[in-house]
Design brief:
Layout (H helix, E strand, L loop, with lengths): L3 H17 L5 H6 L30 H25 L8 H5 L7 H18 L11 H11 L2 H14 L4 E7 L5 E7 L14 E7 L6 H4 L3 H8 L5 H12 L1
Antiparallel strand pairs: 1-2, 1-3
Helix pairs in contact: 3-5
The chain binds manganese (II) ion (MN).
Length: 245
């Protein structure tokens, strides 16, 4: 039997080998395996919001939050459970595992599984305006990957503003451990085996019009800029720590 240490070495080498041939997906399932549960494993049902609908005012308004959580996100969760029943998915297993094999399932599963996961992540990394940025290990990693915090913000904002139509902007940890920015269409996300850039998302921004239209109308850039005022960087740092384990 291999020792834990050998297993780690093996996984590290596997990740390096995957990088060499451009296949970044192999490490993702390990992150969510039974041996190393991610602290933020998302269930197949909506979790309660940790703050009130008005807590993000004036940057994200209460009416948008209420409709977004109780209508849009609720329907992704309901439709996901339907799809899981129809396609025989074991919903006691982490949602992340199914998403990492999403190419084997229907479009309904892809849209609603992604939709549910993405919103659960989104609610978790938002919070009342706190006026602080990333600190410590996460800030160091952002600086190592992007050069500076400002350079990261600029890259992320560009990803969010230029995503055509509906989708998401992401900060994610690749299998190599590097932080990168990406964007995905519709309700896709970096966990999915069909994603162009794969890894563990630790920060996401919903740029569907339903996320901002009541307050910002067509001014998506203003919504993207306001987003930074309501990021819960402690939650992002916790996700980062969990993703690195
Ligand atoms: Mn949304």
């Amino acid at each position: 039997m291999k020792t834990n240490s050998n297993r780690r070495t093996f996984l590290t080498n596997s990740a390096k080998a995957s990088l060499t041939v451009g296949l970044l997906g192999t490490g993702i399932t390990d992150l969510f395996g039974k041996e190393s549960p991610l602290a933020f494993s998302t269930k197949y049902t909506q979790q309660p919001l940790a703050y009130g609908y008005g807590a993000l005012e004036p940057h994200i308004d209460a009416q948008t939050m209420e409709i977004h959580y109780t209508k849009h996100a609720a329907s992704y969760a309901n439709n996901l459970r339907d799809a899981a029943k129809e396609e025989g998915v074991d919903t006691t297993q982490p949602l992340e595992q199914m998403l990492s094999n999403i190419s084997k399932y229907s479009t309904k599963m892809r849209n609603n599984g992604g939709g549910h996961y993405n919103h659960e992540l989104f609610w978790s990394i938002l919070g009342p305006p706190a006026g602080s940025g990333p600190e410590g290990t996460l800030l160091n990693a952002i600086e190592a990957s992007f050069g500076s915090y400002e350079a990261f913000v600029s890259q992320f904002e560009t990803a969010a503003k230029t995503r055509f139509g509906s989708g998401w902007a992401w900060l994610l940890v690749e299998a190599s451990g590097k932080l990168v920015v990406s964007s995905t269409p519709n309700q896709d996300n970096p966990l999915m085996d069909i994603a162009e850039v794969k890894g563990t998302p630790i920060l996401g921004l919903d740029v569907w019009e339903h996320a901002y239209y009541l307050r910002y109308q067509n001014r998506r850039p203003d919504y993207v800029t306001a987003f930074w005022k309501v990021v819960n960087w402690k939650a992002v740092a916790d996700r980062f720590a969990a993703a690195k384990k």
